[in-house]
């Protein structure tokens, strides 16, 4: 195969066969497409012994909108390269890349089908003890080893260049920081929320804080981010936590990924009001989500400071208190980005099933209002948090 073509099931099998080595020569392959994300095709290819791989292919447009929204195929290269780099420093929590072909925009991945997508599990009220610790480890390790504290200045700048991802970044810039606050035809939300949305758009302090967060996203190449670290990008079971889908990867503000992750846990927190009717069970789920956020913040801070102390090479780390100052800035950013994720997932283009699939209309509206209010308060007060504990206390206080 030479020029790019979008695959169907037969072409996906034909492609795997041209590669050799993915399956034994006598393999009898079957294939189906089951992608449920916003952007790409995802095929599972299985042999007669139930061995399987995942073939992910980028389309030249956004799948959820169609050909009217063209998108670069280069995102497949970015995704595979980010997975490889993150996998080198944090293999336990990164899906493995088996093959990548930039021309066909195809990546072959290990099949994580024995695990489950975190969002689905949280929606069903299931919990995972290691989640906060594992996500903190992935975020701290992948960001530290792709920051100025570890890379040489030359290597860092070359990497920033190769991970320049303007079209995918533009999606985030618009969906996170413009659409909810300026209005856009892409937004959608129930009529009953119009009053809340109008108020949000008239809140000058909020819009100032959002402008600062957007500026940070545009102009702070601190480390190689995942770029879309929500609970639909995580496969989990009781012992395993693995990230998939970093096609939005670029060098950006480290707090963005941490904020996206925590924001999705808080969206689920808000949604549980409409999902679990029994008060004690709902309390248990809320306690679990808050504990996971607390662990994630603490572990992220501890691991970042340990990595700086043990492997940091930049001279600024000799300055007393600088590493702590830097991490404090990441945590403040994370709280702000967390709030912006909550707002854009409630009223913007791309929603979350946590909220949208609440059956009862009144309960759904209550959960959506809570998500909007919590998101706003976090954005407004993020910069007042002078410590990890202050970040956590802010989250607790805005949920009450
Ligand atoms: N390595 C994998 N193993 C098993 N299933 C996968 C794998 N990667 C993706 N999937 C499935 O495909 C879905 C969409 O994948 P994703 O990478 O999120 O696509 P998109 O980029 O379109 O959002 C996931 O929700 C998951 O169900
Ligand atoms: C038009 S892209 C919208 C939205 O979709 C991405 O998520 P995913 O690919 O995981 O479904 C990303 O969050 C974008 O903001």
From TrEMBL:
SUPFAM superfamilies: Protein kinase-like (PK-like) (SSF56112). Residues 33-262 form the Aminoglycoside phosphotransferase domain. Substrate binds at residues 228, 344. GO terms for molecular function: S-methyl-5-thioribose kinase activity. Pfam families: APH. Its EC number is 2.7.1.100. ATP binds at residues 40, 56, 110-112, 245-247. It catalyses: 5-(methylsulfanyl)-D-ribose + ATP = 5-(methylsulfanyl)-alpha-D-ribose 1-phosphate + ADP + H(+). Keywords: Amino-acid biosynthesis, ATP-binding, Kinase, Methionine biosynthesis, Nucleotide-binding, Transferase. Pathway: Amino-acid biosynthesis; L-methionine biosynthesis via salvage pathway; S-methyl-5-thio-alpha-D-ribose 1-phosphate from S-methyl-5'-thioadenosine (hydrolase route): step 2/2. Gene3D superfamilies: 3.90.1200.10, Phosphorylase Kinase, domain 1 (3.30.200.20). Homodimer. Catalyzes the phosphorylation of methylthioribose into methylthioribose-1-phosphate. NCBIfam families: MTRK. Belongs to the methylthioribose kinase family. This is Methylthioribose kinase. It comes from Pseudoalteromonas viridis.
């Amino acid at each position: 195969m030479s020029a790019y073509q979008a695959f169907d099931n037969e072409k996906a099998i034909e492609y795997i066969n041209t590669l050799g080595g993915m399956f034994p020569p006598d393999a009898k392959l079957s294939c189906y497409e089951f992608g449920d994300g916003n952007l790409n095709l995802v095929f599972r290819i299985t042999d007669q012994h139930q061995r399987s791989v995942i073939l992910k292919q980028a389309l030249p447009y956004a799948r959820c909108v169609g050909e009217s929204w063209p998108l670069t195929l280069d995102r497949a290269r970015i995704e595979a390269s980010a997975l490889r780099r993150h996998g080198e420093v944090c293999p336990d929590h990164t899906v493995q890349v088996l093959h990548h072909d930039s021309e066909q925009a195809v990546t072959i991945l290990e099949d994580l089908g024995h695990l489950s997508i975190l969002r689905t599990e949280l929606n069903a009220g299931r919990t995972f003890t290691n989640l906060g610790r594992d996500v903190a480890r992935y975020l701290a390790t992948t960001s530290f080893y792709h920051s100025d504290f570890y890379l040489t200045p030359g290597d860092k700048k070359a990497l920033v260049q190769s991970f320049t991802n303007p079209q995918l970044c533009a999606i985030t810039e618009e969906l996170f920081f413009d659409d909810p606050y300026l209005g856009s035809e892409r937004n959608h939300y129930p009529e009953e929320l119009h009053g809340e949305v109008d108020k949000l758009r008239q809140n000058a302090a909020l819009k100032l804080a959002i402008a600062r967060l957007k500026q940070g996203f545009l102009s702070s190449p601190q480390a190689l981010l995942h770029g879309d670290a929500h609970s639909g990008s995580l496969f989990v079971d009781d012992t395993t936590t693995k990230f998939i889908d970093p096609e939005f990867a670029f060098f950006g503000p480290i707090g963005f990924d941490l904020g996206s992750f925590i924001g999705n846990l808080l969206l689920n927190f808000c949604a549980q009001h409409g999902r679990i009717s029994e008060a004690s069970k709902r309390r248990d789920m809320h306690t679990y989500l808050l504990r996971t956020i607390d662990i994630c913040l603490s572990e992220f801070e501890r691991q970042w400071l340990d990595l700086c102390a043990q492997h940091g090479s930049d001279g600024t780390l000799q300055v007393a208190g600088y590493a702590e100052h830097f991490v404090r800035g990441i945590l403040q950013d994370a709280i702000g980005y967390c709030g912006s994720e909550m707002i854009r997932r409630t009223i913007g283009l791309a929603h979350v099933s946590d909220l949208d699939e609440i059956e009862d209309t009144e309960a759904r509206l209550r959960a959506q209002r809570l998500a909007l209010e919590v998101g706003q308060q976090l954005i407004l007060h993020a910069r007042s948090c002078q410590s990890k504990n202050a970040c956590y206390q802010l989250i607790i206080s805005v949920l009450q």
